[in-house]
């Protein structure tokens, strides 16, 4: 499988760069007869779209999806689903100054080491813009998961070191931060303004939950459900850590505080985050992703040019102050892709 594809049975392949004609992909393995429309996918794309909100890049993209194949009379045909999204607001000339300079924290240096050639117009293939195709693939996975009653919900748990104090799932769709705690939003907005005014950027934590996931998805070795989720989330730019359930806190706990005791009515707690031995337990899946601050920032930073000479850089162009909240629907999409893939793998074994 190439580095441009994800999944074993429900497979998403993406193409495109931030400043090319556009981006798109092909989904293979989606079962036939699943209700699917451009309007359904667009709802998720609009949640990720750049150009709105105080932490977002000012680049204006409509991100209108065009379905090219694999859907007839509002249902999937079981064949490859092709899709395309045009780039409309590139301003590629703004990037000539990073043609020969590596931005600290971005993929410029490593990309050049790997390919010996770089599309310097923005992040190219390494740009967060590529995640537009993940959201399309993820929403097709969701259309399939919907038929099974599986629901995925992600939200911002922390932004710039300020954590939500309560989790009210009804609040999430009402604000563009995907915050489950509306009272924390003014604090986040102040923090963003503060950091933006000095040319800096912010990170945070996203929590993703999956409900109604049947017990029995995953593998006992290698392709453990938790391993595949971590792989999926870490495959998104700016994600630097993944936790499942209690996560890193387990290191400080006793075994008796960590185990989820079983009763005839089910589990008494969910420290495991819905996964035991790499296989779903039937409890909610709970995963968190740590997101680093945006590397392209307005402060002067030290770096080198392509000849290795030391230079200073103050990155221009239109950049997010934080990948949060736009990364939230992307991470949701990645979890949807993993669950769809595992369900179809399980179907091959004769279950589900
Ligand atoms: C939705 C999203 C938006 C992003 N926006 C920007 C941006 O505006 N500017 C930028 O330099 N990096 C942005 N990033 C982060 C970079 O793409 C990422 O840091 C870079 O590819 C390097 O990869 P790494 O952080 O995984 O090492 C964004 C990432 C995502 C997922
Ligand atoms: C355009 C989007 O986000 C981009 C993600 C990104 C990056 O380096 O990751 C850098 C900026 O774009 P450019 O490639 O023009 O520098 C963001 O605007 C998008 O998400 O649709």
Automatic annotation (TrEMBL):
Cofactor notes: Reduced FMN (FMNH(2)).
Stretches assigned to coiled coil: none
Summary of subunit composition and partner proteins: Homotetramer.
Family indicated by similarity: Belongs to the chorismate synthase family.
Pathway terms, separated by semicolons: Metabolic intermediate biosynthesis; chorismate biosynthesis; chorismate from D-erythrose 4-phosphate and phosphoenolpyruvate: step 7/7
Obligatory cofactor(s): FMNH2
Stored PROSITE patterns: CHORISMATE_SYNTHASE_2
Binding residues annotated for NADP(+), in chain numbering: 48
Listed name of the protein: Chorismate synthase
EC number: 4.2.3.5
Residues annotated as binding FMN: 125-127, 277, 292-296, 318
Function, as annotated: This reaction introduces a second double bond into the aromatic ring system.
Keywords from the named record: Amino-acid biosynthesis, Aromatic amino acid biosynthesis, FAD, Flavoprotein, FMN, Lyase, NADP
Gene of this entry: aroC
KW Ligase (keyword) present: no
GO biological process: amino acid biosynthetic process; aromatic amino acid family biosynthetic process; chorismate biosynthetic process
GO molecular function, one term: chorismate synthase activity
Catalytically driven reaction(s): 5-O-(1-carboxyvinyl)-3-phosphoshikimate = chorismate + phosphate
Top-rank taxon: Bacteria
GO cellular component, one term: cytosol
């Amino acid at each position: 499988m190439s580095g441009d594809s994800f999944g074993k049975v429900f497979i998403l392949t993406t193409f495109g760069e931030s400043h090319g004609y556009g981006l798109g992909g092909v989904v293979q393995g989606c079962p036939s007869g699943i209700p699917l429309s451009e309007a359904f996918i667009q709802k998720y794309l609009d949640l990720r779209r750049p150009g709105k909100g105080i932490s977002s890049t000012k680049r204006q993209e409509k991100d209108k999806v065009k379905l090219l194949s694999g859907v007839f009379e509002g249902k999937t045909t079981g064949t490859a689903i092709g899709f395309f999204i045009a780039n409309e607001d590139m301003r590629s000339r703004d990037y000539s100054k990073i043609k020969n300079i590596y931005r600290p924290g971005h993929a410029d240096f490593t990309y050049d080491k790997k390919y010996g050639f770089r599309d310097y117009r923005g992040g190219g293939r390494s740009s967060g813009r590529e995640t537009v195709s993940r959201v399309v693939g993820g929403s097709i996975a969701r259309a399939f998961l919907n038929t099974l009653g599986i629901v995925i919900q992600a939200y911002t748990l922390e932004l710039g070191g300020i954590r939500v104090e309560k989790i009210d799932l009804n609040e999430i769709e009402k604000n563009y931060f995907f915050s489950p705690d509306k009272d924390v939003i003014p604090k986040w907005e102040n923090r963003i303004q503060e950091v933006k005014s000095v040319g800096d950027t912010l990170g945070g934590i996203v929590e993703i939950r999956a409900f109604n996931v049947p017990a029995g998805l995953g593998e006992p070795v290698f392709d453990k459900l938790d391993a595949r989720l971590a792989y999926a989330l870490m495959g998104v730019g700016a994600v630097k850590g993944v936790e499942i359930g209690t996560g890193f806190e387990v290191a400080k706990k006793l075994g008796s505080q960590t185990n989820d005791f079983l009763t005839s009515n089910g589990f008494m707690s969910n420290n495991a985050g819905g996964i035991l031995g790499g296989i779903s337990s039937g409890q909610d899946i709970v995963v968190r992703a740590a997101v680093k601050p945006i590397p392209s920032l307005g402060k002067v930073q030290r770096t080198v040019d392509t000849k290795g000479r030391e230079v200073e850089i103050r990155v221009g162009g239109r950049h997010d102050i934080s990948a949060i909240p736009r990364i939230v629907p992307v991470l949701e999409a990645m979890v949807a892709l993993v669950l769809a893939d595992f369900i179809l793998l399980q179907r091959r074994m004769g279950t589900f």
